[in-house]
Design a protein that fits this description.
With 135 residues, the protein is an alpha+beta fold. 33% of the residues lie in helices and 30% in strands.
Length: 135
């Protein structure tokens, strides 16, 4: 599968912010970088903040937070990368993306160098879709 130019640009945006550095001897930042493209065509990026006690922040959540500042909620495409390559978002991030805007269930999620799926495929039978269908 040949990726579109815009998809390759999104992957490069995530790679540009990826790069781990130490906050202290116990905590790090940047071992995962993420990028989202909004419905308006803007790109927001974020990095993973790895802290103790579960108070860290995933790179995807950081990118979504950046996207929300100008009041954008709709994602058309998202990607996360680390030292090994492209990652699928964790379950917590999948749910967060869906709850930010239920239309994000149809966003493209890049999960490999040659694989793109929709968030809906990663969250089949999602409860937000069921609520919408029952109205």
């Amino acid at each position: 599968m040949k990726m579109e130019k815009t998809t390759l640009q999104l992957i490069e945006a995530a790679r540009a912010v990826y790069g781990e550095f130490a906050l202290s001897e116990h905590f790090t930042v940047g071992s995962v970088g993420a990028a989202v493209r909004t419905a308006r065509g803007n790109i927001s990026t974020g990095v993973w903040i790895d802290l103790a006690c579960g108070i860290g922040v995933c790179a995807e959540a950081a990118a979504v937070a950046e996207m929300l500042k100008p009041r954008e909620t709709r994602i058309t495409e998202i990607v996360a990368v680390n030292q090994y390559g492209i990652l699928a978002p964790c379950g917590r991030c999948r749910e967060m993306i869906a709850q930010v805007d239920s239309r994000n269930l149809d966003c493209r999620v890049i999960i490999g160098e040659d694989r793109i799926v929709t968030l809906r495929e990663l969250l089949p039978e999602h409860w937000l879709a069921q609520i919408k269908n029952n109205k």
